[in-house]
Every structure is written in C-alpha cells, then in structure tokens.
Amino acid sequence: METLGKRIKYLRERNKISQIEFAKKIGVSNAVLSRYESGDRKPDYDTLQLIADFFEVSTDYLLGRTDKPALTPEEKEEADFQAFANTPELQEFYKELPVSNEEAVKRLRDIWEIIKHERKQ
C-alpha cells in the first residue's frame, strides 16, 4: 500500500467512518474506495480534492509530498487565491488587465478580497 492509500485509510479510520459511508460521501463505490486504500487505483484530481476537503488536509499531504496534514492559514489563503487566479473563466478576464504583471496581480488580489468578503456575508 502506498502513501496515498495509507493516508486515506488512516484519515477515514481516525474519523470513524466506514468505507461504505465514505465512498458515498465522495461519490465512488465501496470497491473503488477499497482499491484507493490498497494502492491498486488512484483517484482522479476532482476526487482527490474532495477527499482532501472532506478531511481538511492538503492534497500534498495525501500524496505524501509533506507530512504536515493541514495548511497554515496563510498557505490556505495563497492556495485559494492561486486556484481563483487560475480558473479558465478568469483567464479570459485576466487578459484584459493591464500588461504590467505586478499591477495585474495587485488588481487580481483586490478582486479576490472583494469576493472573499462577499462569501462571508
């Protein structure tokens, strides 16, 4: 069993969730989840993200790239901003921002702050 499978199983058992229950929560069959945990199969990107979000850990932790399960608030903020900045829909708008990379990133961060504030309300 490789790191990803071991960590999924560890987190599931630590949270006292059966394979059947967790498989339903992430939208896969029990057999597929069992294969993830045994290392015989790897989840696709979207499923990997669902697993990470469910257990509130980073995908890097699940993949064994770090032993630190969760991001610091600053790392989470930066990861959220990067995900926002790299969405295909935003790429079209982003092309319209000024050519200066520094200025474009500042304006994009300003937009991100507005969106974050609106989400909290």
Report what the structure shows.
The protein is built from eight helices and no strands. With 121 residues, it is mostly helical. It folds into two domains: 3-62, 434 Repressor (Amino-terminal Domain) (Orthogonal Bundle), CATH 1.10.260.40; 73-120, no CATH class. The longest helix is centred in the C-terminal third of the chain and has 20 residues, at 101-120. The chain starts with a helix and ends with a helix.
Percentage of β-strand residues: under 5%
Total DSSP E strands: 0
Distance between the termini: 44 Å
CATH topology of the largest domain: 434 Repressor (Amino-terminal Domain)
Tell me the series of helices and strands, N- to C-terminal: HHHHHHHH
CATH architecture assignment of the largest domain = Orthogonal Bundle
Number of domains: 2
Helical segment count: 8
Output the CATH class name of the largest domain: Mainly Alpha
Radius of gyration: 18 Å
How helical, in percent, are the residues?
55-70%
Q: What is the CATH H-level superfamily of the largest domain?
A: lambda repressor-like DNA-binding domains
Structural class: mainly alpha
Pfam families: HTH_3 (PF01381)
Keywords: DNA-binding
InterPro entries: Cro/C1-type_HTH (IPR001387), Lambda_DNA-bd_dom_sf (IPR010982)
Protein name: Helix-turn-helix domain-containing protein
